[in-house]
Design a protein that fits this description.
Number of domains: 1
CATH topology: 2,3-Dihydroxybiphenyl 1,2-Dioxygenase, domain 1
Number of helices: 3
Order of helices and strands: HEHEEEEHEEE
Number of strands: 8
Structural class: alpha/beta
CATH architecture: Roll
CATH class: Alpha Beta
CATH superfamily: 2,3-Dihydroxybiphenyl 1,2-Dioxygenase, domain 1
Strand content: 25-35%
Helix content: 10-25%
Length: about 130
């Protein structure tokens, strides 16, 4: 089976107003290195394992950062608290602090990123 058959989400895009600022924000918050996608528009992809669900930050006409649209939860496995602290140091606003998900599904938190998007973080640990 492909990831398209196993997952509700197959790809996501987070819009940016300042591509470099957004790249630095997500690399710092998640402690990862984004990878440039070869194409005509500014697009950096989040790290992904074979068969996993991927996504990117992108700067494209008609795509404007917003805190009123869809909510994407990024993987902060084992580093949720550290990710929130890094986000706050970068000026992000924590909208929902670390919160336990009933039923043993881990923890989540939500923040407003450097571009004004409402983004979630998820981890089974904090």
């Amino acid at each position: 089976m492909s990831k398209f058959e196993n997952n509700a989400v197959t790809w996501f895009e987070i819009p940016t107003a300042d591509f470099q600022r957004a790249t630095e924000f997500y690399e710092s918050v998640l402690d990862v290195k984004l990878r440039a996608y070869p194409g005509p528009e500014l697009c950096n992809m989040f790290p992904i394992e074979q068969g996993g669900v991927g996504g990117c930050i992108v700067q494209r006409d008609g795509h404007t950062p917003s805190n009123a649209g869809a909510l994407v939860y990024l993987n902060a496995e084992g580093k949720l608290d550290a990710s929130l602290k890094r986000a706050e140091k970068l000026g992000a606003k924590v909208l929902v602090p670390r919160t336990e998900i009933p039923g043993g599904f881990g923890f989540y938190a939500c923040l407003q990123d450097s571009e004004g998007n409402h983004v979630g973080l998820h981890s089974s640990l904090f």
